[in-house]
Amino acid sequence: MRIHHPEWFKITLPHDKIFYSIKTGIKRSGLHTVCEEAGCPNRIRCFSLKRVTFLILGKVCTRNCLYCGVTKGTPDIVDKNEPVRIAGFVRDMKLDYLVITSVTRDDLADKGAGQFAAVIAEVKKERPGCRIEVLTPDFSGDMSLLKTVLSAKPFVFAHNIEVVKEFYPRLRPGGRYSLSLELLAQAKEMNAITKSGIMIGLGETINQIKATLKDLKHAHVDVITIGQYLPPGKEAPAVRKYYTPQEFNSLKVKAQSMGFRQVCAGPLVRSSYCQVEVTE
Amino acid sequence: MEIPGDLLYTKEHLWLRAEGDMITCGITDHAQELLDEINVIELPEPGSVIARDDILATIESLKSVFDVLCPVNGKVSHINEKLKEKPSLMNSSPYQDGWIATLIITNKDELHSFLTVEQYTDFISG
User: Is residue A13 within 8 angstroms of chain B, CB to CB?
Assistant: First the structure.
């Protein structure tokens, strides 16, 4: 067997105390991160930079997206203390930027929107200067739930389109392309800074990527991320193409020319790896 | 997480077992946890001479590639052929069945530069 991943996926293992203080802090707090649940290749670098993406509402998802490594099945009981524990972590570790995401909770009446709002409120209380980015599921298109989250005033509202239109619903059963775009458009209507990410390398064409970017622009998305898909396990769809850093750069230039406020593109770019710059 | 007391360690998360002028090495339990599911390993040829910090082996896991840098100046005496068929032995048995290579070291004094179990435990705690 030969190595498949190109050389730009090479990592080094941690050498610094910040990484270990973050890792130990997460373990001690009993919280979950998508960084660890998804085995993200960036997590060593991110933790060393005090960048953490918490996964709230348990670590079991009610949907079955083929590209995702998060456990699927019967969801966990919602932990009412989670917002306080996250806020305590952010305070103790002195984080200045925080990303909150969740599993999809189609089983809950509010789809988990209230928990997002509660986490934002608690973190603001404990560490007022910390900018909070939320990366939410689609809330089945219930815009009142979007409002619940945005009323808590996160710094950024993110919702990932994940893959090109042509791969719905095969890779994202339960999701709808048009509904995700509508959610982003509505968030913009409510004056949020909006952000969306796409994974490439699943067999899509360049034109399909460009069409998806155009649709995101039509939804007035501010910030986009484009990264290489890597399978979360042996049963997941295989990589059909490894885009080179040069190809990512061409896509970045294309997206910038379309007028997005910020574009992050590269093999290791993940939605929450790219912090939104403050321009105001 | 397991960190056996009778081994030496490096800040690159390797373990070493020294016997005379030979050392056997592999990745630590902590390293395999960080790398996640290991799918491929490229091993050196027995007999090859490798300088300290040059690539001894390259590991591919689910989402990353990791170069195992040679912990000593030495000559490869044996490699763990079983890893070619079953690289996941580094996950399931990092200190026993998942050993990577045995080397004849050029200078035994190099062994003084490694970490003890206490030092490595301290290095990886927050």
Answer: yes
